[in-house]
Write a structure and sequence with these properties.
Mean pLDDT of chain B: 96
Structural class of chain B: alpha+beta
Number of helices of chain B: 5
Bound molecules: flavin-adenine dinucleotide
Oligomer: heterodimer
Helix content of chain A: 10-25%
Radius of gyration of chain B: 15 Å
CATH class of the largest domain in chain B: Alpha Beta
Number of strands of chain B: 8
Largest interface: A-B, 50 and 39 residues
Mean pLDDT of chain A: 96
Low-confidence stretches of chain B: none
Shape of chain A: globular
Order of helices and strands of chain B: EHHEEHEEHEEHE
Largest sheet of chain B: 2 strands, antiparallel
Distance between the termini of chain A: 24 Å
Distance between the termini of chain B: 8 Å
Helix content of chain B: 10-25%
Amino acid sequence: MKYVIIGNSAAAVGAVTGIRKIDKNGKIVIISKEKYLAYSRPSISSLLAGKITMEKMPYRKKEFYDKNGVELMLDAEVSSIDTSAKKLNLTGSRKVIKYENLLVATGGKPFLPPIKGLDKEDILTFTTLDDSLKLKKLSEKIHDVVIVGGGLIGLKAAEGLIKAGINVTVLELAPRVLSAAFDNVTSKIIQNAFKQKGVKIITGDTADEIIKEDGKIVKALLKSGKSIKCDAVIVAIGVMPNTDVLDSSNIKTNRGILIDDYMTTSDKSIYAAGDVAEGFDMVLGKKRVLPIWTNAYVQGKVAGINMAGKKLAFTKLLPMNSITFCDVPIISMGFTEAPNKEEYKVIEKNDIKNNIHKRIILKDNVLVGCCFVTNIDRAGIITGLMKDSIDVSDYIGALLDDDFSFAHFTKEFRAERLKTVNKAIV
Amino acid sequence: MKRVYPIEEFCMSCGLCEVACATEHSESRNIVKAHKEEKIVPRNSVNRNQEEHVSFSLNCRHCEEPSCVEACITGAIDVGDDGIVLIDTERCVACWSCIMACPFGVIKRDPIRKVSTKCDLCVSTDREGPSCVSACPNRALVYEER
Ligand SMILES: Cc1cc2nc3c(=O)[nH]c(=O)nc-3n(C[C@H](O)[C@H](O)[C@H](O)COP(=O)(O)OP(=O)(O)OC[C@H]3O[C@@H](n4cnc5c(N)ncnc54)[C@H](O)[C@@H]3O)c2cc1C
């Protein structure tokens, strides 16, 4: 096979799109453990909440695969890669798949540290469509759920469950929720919004032991000694790169698979993209796993273009999140807290009572981070300026105004940007 | 591909382009009803800098490599074979990822229908060419190939 992709999510779809920009005919095979067409993973919480139905889950429809001549092997798991013979072995099957160019787009898997008293079969996670369906069914029987982890996934699960009428307690070991992706002000606003919806959020604490009676979960004992009544526990501490298929290979990994600007791994015919890979974060200035949808799609697309033989580097990798909790929309990019006071400048505009918060972080008059709460309109202009490392001194005072737009640029800069941004990459 | 381009020197900041857009994309096609009853969000915006007396109307640039498509978590945004970038509002879940991604700031929230909205060059309506261009009283918008 000319192109083989392991995984069938954002990075895989991006890769198909990238390959077909260059090579219209080369055979593409996608192997996926899940039995579904690519679906919107972030939307599994909307599904749980009953906001959308199964019909709305597909990210790409069947026609996408047909149109691009993709052979889909669903419900099939790659067990290992033989890099010298360039072939893949499948779990429970003697079939081997040969490849010329391979993309590892296996994404993330939930991080599950042992919790005393919580048996493996009792652990609930919230990262797949099947997890969501299972939880939805279960929600008819359970009443009180403890969610371990107050990050994006934990809070998404919480929001889905309260819509189903369940009492939810979220346990977060850090002093605040969402600390990985948002600043302290945003955390405060969101924590408050959840409180108003009846969700209990406990910070600086976590589950120490789960107590069962007659084989059923009845309560969680916390580090602090507190006891929380519950009949189910969801573990949402985080996701980690799913590098299992590489275990027997010599491809270089750190936390995730190490890739260069062309998404190539240490093996020249193997590429990696998405939650499984470590790309170069342009504001942080170092390699890291950036588990966000856009990143997976773009890395996948760039990988595909390179797999098809055209050299194209991708260097504008930025952490960015846009999400809504309890009807409060929040957006963040780059740094959310200044790494130090000497080099970084923080500018804010707040009306916390009305859930309004805007923060930008600059270094040498270049944007390196921001948080927007409620008033998120035109946030993309900030993203664009950040990605292109533009010196914003000329209009720094207008950046946080709600009507900030291209009208605040100098005439020359406006003309140039309107002309050049987002031209075709190949 | 033909796109809408503003000529800022001619723009008087009147906002008729927004009115025309909202009316064109309404059920009633009635100026007042579109605004007051249907509460249609115009898909374009007059970008204004009052202090500097700068104004011009801006709508979706229909990028060749759109950031909004890359960012959309549901697959609701796509580039058609004709190059026009469209949002399938049936599949939009109002996550606003496209708003975070668009470097021009031309995607808007529709608070009533809870979806993202943006210029479709009037292909969803039955008119020839974008309504904003025809409505501009001072020819500050042109629809052309560049
Ligand atoms: C609840 C939730 C909410 C989220 N919300 C947001 C959000 O709002 N915004 C955002 O940007 N991001 C969000 N994310 C993160 C986003 O979903 C991920 O960044 C994205 O899915 C990564 O895509 P990917 O293609 O790298 O991998 P994944 O989506 O993880 O897909 C990898 C696929 O590979 C398959 N696979 C793994 N190993 C094998 C194997 N050996 N053989 C065959 N197949 C295999 C897996 O089964 C899986 O289907 C959310 C995630 C979750 C769980």
